[in-house]
Amino acid sequence: MIFGRSERGKPPVEPVTLKILVAGGFGVGKTTLVGAVSEIRPLRTEEFLTEAGRPVDDTTGVEGKHTTTVAMDFGRITLREDLVLYLFGTPGQERFWFMWDELSEGALGAVVLADTRRLEDCFAAVDYFERRAIPFVVGVNCFEGAPRYPVQDVRRALDLDDHVPVLLTDARDRESVKDVLVGVVQHAMRVGAERRQTVTT
């Protein structure tokens, strides 16, 4: 069944739609991740990097990158017939961070993509979601040639609470990204249940 169509004799299922953010530093793979899983052609707002932006666009470690997201990436994936995720990739550069407040409105949770070669670039995203109490997982994007570290080392380096999941992923691989998105939904549901229990006790 896809959006209102169902097998003969069965009532149509109205899917629940959830909003997930994909955040992280410049060049960490957010656009790639959204494109890897989206079942529609992703909406992208990319512009070419220019000489004028060179002083503020740090391309160290991502020298091959020639474009940057200036507003958002958008994609959609159906996890089950009754569960659809809308994915919003945030811009990674500081001068576009004003977009984050609008994009985070109504979000169930977030993926913070991390590159072990530039781990400090995702500090701002981690801090943003912690301060706003938005559940998030950290997805360590396993770039070719990048050093691999145990999950606990990444957790300590980012000073994450023990309950924040840290997952290894490949932003180019659909199944790997799906696992991370399932992890976000499950984590957000756990956090929501814990908050409701705290309120009622």
From TrEMBL:
Molecular function GO labels: ATP binding; GTP binding; hydrolase activity
DNA repair among keywords: no
Domain of life: Bacteria
Signal peptide coordinates: none
Keyword annotations of the record: ATP-binding, GTP-binding, Hydrolase, Nucleotide-binding
Entry keyword annotation includes Ribosomal protein: no
UniProt xrefs under Pfam families: ATP_bind_1
Family note: Belongs to the GPN-loop GTPase family.
Protein name: ATP-binding protein
Classification lineage: Bacteria, Bacillati, Actinomycetota, Actinomycetes, Kitasatosporales
